[in-house]
Specification:
By secondary structure, the chain is α/β, with parallel strands linked by helices. The protein has 2 domains: 207 residues, Isopropylmalate Dehydrogenase (3-Layer(aba) Sandwich); 135 residues, Isopropylmalate Dehydrogenase (3-Layer(aba) Sandwich). Helices cover 40% and strands 20% of the residues. The strands form 2 sheets. It has a 10-stranded mixed β-sheet, sandwiched between helices. A two-stranded antiparallel sheet has the order 6-7. 46% of the residues are buried. The chain binds 3-isopropylmalic acid (IPM) and magnesium ion (MG). The site of magnesium ion has 2 residues, from helix 9. Magnesium ion (MG) binds next to helix 9. It catalyses: (2R,3S)-3-isopropylmalate + NAD(+) = 4-methyl-2-oxopentanoate + CO2 + NADH. InterPro entries: IsoCit/isopropylmalate_DH_CS, IsoPropMal-DH-like_dom, Isopropylmalate_DH. This is 3-isopropylmalate dehydrogenase. Its EC number is 1.1.1.85.
């Protein structure tokens, strides 16, 4: 019988709280479906810094390379804001992405019908929303060299005498592999890809557009491809989001556009993500799963956090890392049912109030719904 290995990295802020609820779901699948998970847990972000003086210990990095999947909660918090840049909690997350080479970050934005009224946009604009942003995750301005803050002493015109540098850099190979991921995903959905860049002002954007078009023409001519400048894309996302199926874009634009797309769905507390790399020996991609929301220090420790994004991230792990698509469907159905029954955490409370459930009650309800389905 296969055992599925999972490394849990709860991280900081609400990360540990939402992860406790995921554990309930994992236990449910072990007990009721006889699926064996080999779960280990370790530190990342500020929690790792507190113990090891670095946001990700080498042993943890090594473990992450060996498991079938990593599930990460969130990193960061005000206690770590003034740390040196090199040991900030975010560096731990970025190291995982880079060293596991998780180049394709899948951020679905789906609007659950029961929540359409919670969107900041009108119901008729977001109802039925089902888009997938594929964000390049291991290159671009996040990692490009040269980078740094330098003195600019020889330039008397520069008040303050300093210069901050980051580099947007993409190779054709990096663009092609993420484009392939987007086309493959589109084939299993609405068969449409919209690629976003700023080819009007950036050479890296011109290359991006050309290479995505190349992959399309040579390998996926049957998929419909369009191109859009990223600023127009941001506008279209809030104007008529349903026009999109799969959006493929670079690391920085993807970071920004996915937050905008997230808000369309009503709450950041609902959105999962998967970061996938090259296939491992078992044929499944190297993978890390994480909710799109952050560590939410303002509500940490109050039982207010919505665990659904993290639980849906585990559902993505079931689908992409463990080949348990039916179980992933079941878990998503359970969540849909709980929401349809009106169960709400505080982030999902409308203006007319009601009584929110706690993080842990939401977890219990989802497990109950799993048993009832
Ligand atoms: C995200 C986050 C991260 C990013 C931060 C925490 C480094 O905003 O996953 O979207 O910028 O990629
Ligand atoms: Mg972000």
């Amino acid at each position: 019988m296969t055992t599925h290995s999972l490394l849990i990295l709860p991280g900081d802020g609400i990360g540990p709280e939402v992860m406790t609820e995921v554990r309930k779901v994992i236990d449910w699948f072990q007990t009721n479906k006889g699926i064996q998970f080999d779960v280990s847990e370790d530190l990342v972000g500020g929690a790792a810094y507190d113990k090891h003086g670095v946001p990700l210990a080498d042993e943890t990095m090594q473990k992450a390379q060996e498991v079938d999947a990593v599930l990460l909660g969130a990193v960061g918090g005000p206690a770590y804001d003034n740390l040196d840049f090199s040991v900030k909690p975010e560096r731990g997350l970025l190291r995982l992405r880079k060293e596991m080479d998780l180049f394709a970050n899948l951020r679905p934005a789906q609007c659950f019908d029961a929540l359409a009224d919670f969107s900041s946009l009108k119901r008729e604009i977001v109802a039925g929303l089902d888009i997938l942003i594929v964000r390049e995750l291991t290159s671009g301005v996040y990692f490009g060299e040269p980078r740094g803050i330098h003195s600019d002493d020889n330039n008397p015109q520069n008040e303050g005498g300093r210069v901050g540098i980051n580099t947007q850099r993409y190779t054709s190979g990096e663009i092609r592999r993420v484009a392939r991921a987007a086309f493959e995903l589109a084939k299993k959905r609405g068969n449409r890809v919209c690629s976003m860049e700023k080819a009007n002002v950036m050479e890296s954007g011109i290359l991006w557009r050309e290479e995505v078009q190349w992959v399309h023409d040579n390998e996926y001519p049957e998929v419909e491809l369009s191109h859009m400048y990223a600023d127009n894309g941001a506008m279209q996302l809030v104007r008529r989001p349903n026009q999109f199926d799969v959006i493929v874009t670079d690391n920085l634009f993807g970071d920004i556009l996915s937050d905008a797309a997230a808000m369309l769905t009503g709450s950041l507390g609902m959105l999962p993500s998967a970061s996938l790399g090259a296939p491992m020996a078992n044929g499944r991609p190297k993978a890390m799963y994480e909710p799109v929301h952050g560590s939410a220090p303002d509500i940490t420790g109050q039982g207010k956090a919505n665990p659904i994004a993290c639980i849906l991230s585990f559902a993505m792990a079931l689908r992409y890392s463990y080949d348990l698509g039916a179980e992933a469907d079941l878990l998503e159905k359970a969540i849909e049912k709980v929401l349809a029954d009106g169960v709400r955490t505080a982030d999902l409370m409308g203006p007319d109030g009601g009584t929110p459930v706690s993080t842990s009650q939401m977890g219990d309800k989802i497990v109950e719904a799993l048993s009832a389905l």
